[in-house]
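Raw record, unedited: DUF3696 domain-containing protein
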Amino acid sequence: RIEVRGGAIKPTDAAFHYFHREKSEIVVTTPTIDSDGRLSSWPEGFFDQHDENLVSLLAPREK
C-alpha cells in the first residue's frame, strides 16, 4: 500500500488476499487498492500492521 501510494507500483499490480473460515468453508476476500493505497474493504482482524502503516500513508508525500 505504501509503495502504491508512493507511485513505485500501480494499484493494479498489487493485491491482498484475505482468507477466513465461515463454518466449514474457506472464503477468500480480495479488496481492491486505490492510487492512495487505500483498500476498498478492510476485513475484521485483517493485518495488525494497519495502524503503523496508517502513519506512513497519512504523511505528506516526499517530492
